[in-house]
């Protein structure tokens, strides 16, 4: 397929998630065969490799320090051993040289331990024992008839572990009433079934559930509406997968395929988070990249932190023990399994001792920033705060209470689903602890249990110190939380973090950016927004929405501040600065072509995500090198996305007054036509020219205008090639095929008519070589432009012509062309 100048209507293909071709990894030592037969077994370091070399079957250890081994299936062409299926999940072997995977006398595939006892078997009834086990290129292990491969007696796809592979079915076999479901590992070193599972509703609806401990549903996909599951709107614009839901008389299932075989992608039910996650392998990073997960908020996972553990969506680790409790099993906790939760440091006394000594009383510790569990019991007859405390204290099973305007609430037994809510205005939860646990604490009534004579004279100083420490602890806590989702900051906190906004990194029409540092030395970038007139609630709502949008090529929003007219955003700091610094500053080392091309690809992926993958299309409206920032590895991240949403659509005045922005504005900005995502495509095309040339498109010199680079590209493409268009600092060191591809694409992006421009999803496809770009037409505004005044004049001219064309088309009986999304790219 190609971008064709004969038709601007370009079909949608893969999305931003499509990654570049993956380098092949050297396969592990293996048999030449992919088959276990009656006279060929598997043991020790022997492996089977699928016919196309995609998957391996053999013995593996979950970690380098593990002494337990399992029979499993893993990817053969990636550099990190990643098991996708495990046979003996609950019973490992310790000696692979004496253990054996073989075909038994009854035709089943069995695993024998060092004592030759069967510890795992396919366990199916087989009419004949002439069977073989074959590992396939889709990751499926089949036990089938040796002479008739279509007669399959058992397959691993019917018994998945924690990973859901392409073409694998998740659903219900109505004939056998067998569910195909995912079950998370216990922890990263133990593939035994954990407490989280994903399965179809056994009651017959088309929705899928994630379930805690086979009892508590905490996420649902919603029902299948014929196209998507109605609570998973991200499926609507997905160009990487084909989805299929089947409901017949014999089975109900859902499966998917990957549209491009070069992509290694999987879904996994994660043991640590309880989320279903979509992961794609990034060979250049040697790691799996998370692109999608549900539930979106970590703390919505039921009992994720176990009894008396508190969850925090904005911190890592996201679980901690509440006051008076410590981790119950530190080893499992460190391995990612927090389900055991926390246990008391000191057991409750539950009443007075025989001498009536009040030292043995239990006390209550206030937790003011905790969202209480839901399973409370209300005491309707209790009418005061004091009576509520007493009612809980007199019941040995009562572990906490809370009193507010709606009544007295008490909790019995273990507390589950506690959640940190910093800065919340909710009611206080009072936690029951042994008196000895808080030797110098006060009850909430202000009754002093222990008073040291002499503390009175320094009470004011102590209060000041406590207040200072409280602020300090709060800032440290927020410092640790920036690895998570969103943190609300106070203005004074950011003022201190930025040394009173003294180190300015840059600025533009939306505000200025300052460098800062949190107490744990985490470096941040703080943007002071200007010209916003929203109310507190609206601002917080929209920032929270933006904060949930995450992608490897979008800069992360870590937090915000909203105090009256003071509106600030806190971003992760990018050590390589913005793209304009790397391209245009004379004292910067020239980026090599490979890095530039990857910056172009990554930026396109980020924009495609905003346009095509978010619940609502987000138009950036200000794409330029200054808004593309680079991390330490020169991975590009689109900055300031969502600010268009914050300040509203009517901000052309802001944009046109920003330095350098005029050269990136699409014609429709100036002519007043409604703005669509294609305005970002135009800006991206103008920026792509600058990535190629290493200079501004319109350069001013002492002698006047040096030239207009887009015009030069358009004419050179037609005439004598692209070699001379490349940044001279590169010395000709570049992939000329990629240079030509980028030049053609940039010309397509800046077409006068927005319908003739590609989508950002198509831009990604062209750059990655999955979609060809034919020779573009030369835009009229580019062909005739020499100065900014010329550009604006031809913008307005083309707009009038376009308006006239639309007017003529609307009165014409011939309207077939309007069914496409444009004409003649």
UniProtKB/TrEMBL annotation:
Swiss-Prot/TrEMBL catalytic activity: L-seryl-[protein] + ATP = O-phospho-L-seryl-[protein] + ADP + H(+); L-threonyl-[protein] + ATP = O-phospho-L-threonyl-[protein] + ADP + H(+)
Residues of the Apple domain: 350-434
Positions of the Protein kinase domain: 499-771
Enzyme class, UniProt record, top EC level: transferase
Region annotation (Disordered) ranges: 798-825
Biased composition, class Polar residues, residue ranges: 815-825
Principal location listed in the UniProt entry: membrane
Biological process annotations from GO: recognition of pollen; response to other organism
Annotated binding of ATP, by residue: 528
InterPro entries in the cross-refs: Bulb-type_lectin_dom, Bulb-type_lectin_dom_sf, Kinase-like_dom_sf, Pan_app, Prot_kinase_dom, Protein_kinase_ATP_BS, S_locus_glycoprot_dom, Ser/Thr_kinase_AS
GO molecular function: ATP binding; protein serine/threonine kinase activity
Compositional bias (Low complexity): 798-814
Domain Bulb-type lectin: 33-156
TM spans (from-to): 447-468
Signal peptide annotation: 1-32
GO terms under cellular component: membrane
EC number(s) on file: 2.7.11.1
Keywords: ATP-binding, Disulfide bond, EGF-like domain, Glycoprotein, Kinase, Membrane, Nucleotide-binding, Serine/threonine-protein kinase, Signal, Transferase, Transmembrane, Transmembrane helix
Topology within the bilayer: Single-pass membrane protein
Localization per record: Membrane
A Pfam family: S_locus_glycop
Family from the record: Belongs to the protein kinase superfamily. Ser/Thr protein kinase family.
Protein name according to UniProt: Receptor-like serine/threonine-protein kinase
Species, as recorded: Musa acuminata subsp. malaccensis
